[in-house]
Amino acid sequence: MSLARYLLRRHRLIFGIYWGIMLLVLAALVTSLKVFGLWIVEAERASAWALAANVAPGWFVFVIGIILASVYLPVGIAHGITRRDFAIGAGLFAVATSVLFELMKIAGQLLEALAYNMFGIMEEIAEPYPWPTAGGALTEVLGYLGFMCSGWLSALIFYRMRIWWALLVAPFAAIPLSGGMEFISTETDWSHKPHWSFITLIVAGSVVAAYLAVRGLALKPKKT
Amino acid sequence: MFTIEVDDLRLSFGDTKALDGMSFRLGGGKIYGLLGRNGSGKTSLLSLLAAFRRPTAGTIRIDGENPWENAPLVRQICLIRESGDVYDQEKVSCVVRTAGDLRPSFDRDYADRLVERFQIPTRKRVQALSRGQKSALGCTLGLASRAPLTIFDESYLGMDAPSRYAFYDELLADYSDQPRTVIVSTHLIEEVSSLFEEVIIIDRGRLVAHDEADMLRSRGVAVTGPQEVVDTFTAGLTVLGTQRLGGTKSATVFGELNETQLSAARLAGLDLGPVSLQDLFVHLTTGVNR
Amino acid sequence: MSFDDRSPIYQQIADKIKRDILHGDLRADDQVMSTNQYAAFYRINPATAAKGFHQLLDEGYLYKRRGIGMFVSPDAQERLRTQRRERFFSDVVAPMVVEARALGIPLEEIIHHLNGKDGHVHD
Fold this sequence. Notes:
- The complex is a heterotrimer of chains A (224), B (290) and C (123).
- Chain A is mainly α and 224 residues long.
- Chain A is built from eight helices and no strands.
- The two termini of chain A are 30 Å apart.
- Chain C has five helices and three strands.
- In chain C, strand 2 and strand 3 (69-72) form a beta hairpin.
- In chain C, helix 2 crosses helix 3.
- The A-B interface holds A 1, 3, 6, 71-72, 74-85, 216, 218-219, 221-224 and B 43, 47, 51-54, 69-71, 74-79, 81-87, 98-99, 101-103, 131, 134, 147, 158.
């Protein structure tokens, strides 16, 4: 089976658990709103979900990026997959995961809106409700992709380079992540953010860097 | 059948020369033995054949092509290293499933039979396995891969004797049934040498001998007798090593003796004995003791 | 059966089969194991086993029936016997005599011993 499909199948359970937990968090938040009142208004937000679920997925996929490079890549090469094919398969998986996570986030948002309406919270909030938009969704997908690239690059830097060089170069691996942060942060005021085209460029560049980072990789012997 | 051609192959790590200009050609379709001491370059050579890394210089041609990043070729090569390239946190059953998912030629049923034969607990994580069980898992993956070029890099050394013999039996049975090119690297020579059709001996990154296993075995003669007589006889011959006990000397000669030499030895009262492949190997290669 | 280092393994295989034929363990037109079976049984490379069998085929001690297997030639035992008979005195008796001389055992004692063994020399 193709690598992308294999990776998606393997991560079914863990993605399910992650979003299961997030749903529980959502339920807890909505309940707390009902019970303790609109404490979120003090935070100048309309949506509790947006508060909780915006950045967390990014870090989760960051770790997925690390695991892809540090665990799955050596196993893939050992099973006869070229580095190029692996990078492509992992890239497809990364895009699919980013899209999937965005869809889950949107689903949560809509669930929250439903709950707000049911419990009458919607009328009480001061700020406008952050309904999902196509543009917003797309930029968030790119943001998650940036996080995954950072994880992948960090892992490869430490795998391939000697520790001191790795420490020097590693901060550069954080660049796509920062770009991603901008995309998925809850700060909706774009006026004092870098222009979206610039951030898209960073993420695109990091995808290229991720591809280049596997070329020529020598599989290290594992210690018994 | 996969031919393997290696030409002036070099691999260096900084100042260390793991492979120092190695050239040979394997016709394929046989069980090959790769013998060498620790640090002789066996693992480096095999890593290069499997495209786990790139050579510093020289060429490798497997079935006429360079294996590096060569997708159709590399999926037909399986290298099992002693330490195993599996995800440690996975359960054994998962590891086998992963191999089946990622490697097109993998035979799941065969793998399941082997796991049972080697008595590897399927529900345990790889990390929790004993060294012998890990080795057995590696051997299982190698055999079940059905890769046209399958390489075992000392992967069975962690197993106890009964398991090792089970592995040899399985290897022979599968090879007889569906021949492929198999390379087994080892230093447990006497146990495995009867499995080999051709043997390659390397030492310090260089090729030292490459011959049919039977031929190589017959290329060593131990000449024993009084010291001066032995010295006279062995003058001009390739002497790999000598041993002395009092006035008696035993010299290990490399090369076959012709009829004239054989008669001369008998006449001189010298005792001619065989040299095991193990002894030949020890004499042909250098180690820490020398 | 274990293999020693005195001669190539394929040679030892051929010699063993010849011994089996000579001693009647393998009779005329008996089928011998296939090379793969042989290899598996003795844990050796099939090509090595095949080499031993091919030597016997070339020498005519075995014959092949396509698709079925290899069989002992009808004249194999007789030919081997003749061959061994020719070499019996040089390979077996002569060394015995040399050893006896080295130990100082007179020939009469040997003959007496042989006679006493079973009454007649020929079994």
